[in-house]
Amino acid sequence: MPSTNIEDFRLVLSNARNILVVSGAGLSAASGIATFRGQGGRWRKYDASILATLAAWHENQSRVWQFFHYRREEVRSKRPNDGHYALARMCIPKWRQVVAPNATVTHVTQNIDGLCLEALNELSTTSGEQPDGTVIEMHGNLFDVVCNAFDCDYRAKNMDYPICPALEGTEAIVAAGHVEPVVRRADLPHCPKCQQLLRPDVVWFGERPKQIQRILEAADSADLCLVVGTSSLVQPASKLPERVRLNGGKIAVFNLESNTNHSNEADFEFVGPCESELSQILGL
């Protein structure tokens, strides 16, 4: 059975040299962001996990863009919660040195809402101190776009509302329950560089995660892994704690409920809302 002793965990934390954080949807739950699984996991009549695929894109680009436009507008008004800020402080020297003075931190998030980076940038700005920890959005970001053409390298951050005029207001159809509109391909977002179609720069099911080699190297060098708010169902993120364990590292799980996948291999487990448990237990 994993330990729930906070002081024992803090001792391990204080001696850590390389910390890997693996976060998932549970981290953003308190910010009001729905997940693919559970409540909010369906969009209109479609399973959201089916829409986030290359096959769905090839079949109906209008539908996929409407779904991601809806997700963008759902997330746009959300703010980081205390859990995001606690992990952001781990990446900023003046706070981290209090709890883990000799550690480096790599935070790998499966979330595409951008709140981990938003919290880090906000704290860095207000504190006047540059972070030396790293946040990797392994599944991309809802507000990034990439050209669909194989021979074009266009990538950009796009915070526009709407991202194109034809998508304006389509998010309201979800609440109204009306029939899905058809948005012509010509009216969807297009690349300013080559005029081909843009797609959301997120990792769809079946695609290779971003910066995967860097992530695996961080896992292989970590002596402590914090697993935060993740169902541990999606690979390769679900396998990262195991890599830390195989190299002799410790694992601490923070989740709303006991997670059998990682609880069985965890040294520590803290059950409760991430937004309160992280701040209290990390001491940040």
TrEMBL record:
Record's keyword terms, sorted: Metal-binding, Mitochondrion, NAD, Transferase, Zinc
Location relative to the cell: Mitochondrion
Cited Gene3D superfamilies: SIR2/SIRT2 'Small Domain, TPP-binding domain
GO terms for cellular component: mitochondrion; nucleus
InterPro entries: DHS-like_NAD/FAD-binding_dom, NAD-dep_sirtuin_deacylases, Sirtuin, Sirtuin_cat_small_dom_sf, Ssirtuin_cat_dom
Sites where the protein binds Zn(2+): 147, 152, 191, 194
Pfam short name (any one): SIR2
Domain Deacetylase sirtuin-type: 1-284
Domain of life: Eukaryota
Active site (catalytic residues): 139 (proton acceptor)
Molecular-function GO terms, alphabetical: histone deacetylase activity, NAD-dependent; metal ion binding; NAD+ binding
Family, as annotated: Belongs to the sirtuin family. Class I subfamily.
Protein's UniProt name: DHS-like NAD/FAD-binding domain-containing protein
Species lineage: Eukaryota, Fungi, Dikarya, Basidiomycota, Agaricomycotina
